[in-house]
Amino acid sequence: MANWELKSCCKQDQVTFLVTCGVFTVVIFVLWRTVLLTPFKLITVFLHEASHAIACKLTCGHVEGIQVHSDEGGMTQTRGGVYWLILPAGYLGSSFWGMALILASTNLLTTRIAAGCFLVALVVVLFYAKNWTLRGLCIGFIIFIAIILLLQEKTTVRILRYIILFIGIGFLVIFFLFFCAE
Question: Quick one: 6 exposed, middle or buried, by C-beta within 10 A (0-12, 13-18, 19+)?
């Protein structure tokens, strides 16, 4: 017979992680229609579009440009590649990146690696950006993550894991809300 009791289920850090995930999810839902989440919505659109671009490159296509608009829309201009793989890559990629950041936030080393990879990706996108909304978004997040990394390494402030976790949960929740809206 199955034991449905949770007496030996979770250790303190696992409970803290799950509660933090729940709190971040509620915060995102509560702040959904406010200007506070706009940068996170736009970065989610960016990752959606970047996932199209990655799929295009992986299927030997050429990326003409990526645009993210202030109205939370975006467009990836591609030439060539396998269209039926490029098209769903936006939503699949958004889910993947959210999951990857959430998993990375569980360990300090992987959190640092994730933050570093995120910074590199933002710098690369600066070269593909076709509009100032995306360029400004990239520059803003580069500065934000760099400051958090600097605080993490040079002071006693230890919030990098929570920032990466919030961004990862944000990608998943915002992806879900965008997907339901379409």
Answer: exposed
